[in-house]
Design a protein that fits this description.
2 domains; Ribosomal Protein S8, Chain: A, domain 1; Dna Ligase, domain 1; 3-stranded antiparallel β-sheet; alpha+beta; globular; 5-stranded antiparallel β-sheet
């Protein structure tokens, strides 16, 4: 697999389109941190990790409102393996006028755009979610 982040985002997008309650993915530290950020920002309801003798599985519980609409209306990979996208601390993008969230890989770890502005660090823009 060339791009595990794009694979994880595609699994979430496909789970939303097929009206699933949970989405399973192979576990990794980066995927777990991305799922925790999505949970903290209110886009998913829960994240559980089940270990086995090899890699383990990461289960993400998708969030739906009372009218059966998903909390995630769009998710887009920004930095790709063929064309990485880096931003400085002053150039961090606002997603949908501040209604969405950009996830950025910085020297302080994987954080949201608001945390990166607060910390004053830039990095690689992994993806945007709204």
């Amino acid at each position: 697999m060339t791009d595990p982040i794009a694979d994880f985002l595609t699994r979430i997008r496909n789970g939303i389109l097929s009206r699933k309650q949970t989405v399973d993915s192979p576990a990794s530290k980066l995927r777990k941190r991305i799922a925790e950020i999505l949970r903290d920002e209110g886009f998913v309801t829960g994240v559980t990790e089940s270990g086995d003798d090899k890699q383990g599985t990461l289960s993400v519980a998708l969030k739906w409102d009372g009218q059966n609409r998903p909390a995630i209306t769009g998710i887009r990979r920004v930095s790709k393996p063929g064309q990485r996208t880096y931003v400085g601390a002053t150039d961090i993008p606002k997603v949908r006028g501040g209604l969405g969230t950009a996830v950025i890989s910085t020297s302080r770890g994987v954080v949201t755009d608001r945390e990166a502005r607060k910390l004053g660090v830039g990095g690689e823009v992994l993806f945007e979610v709204w």
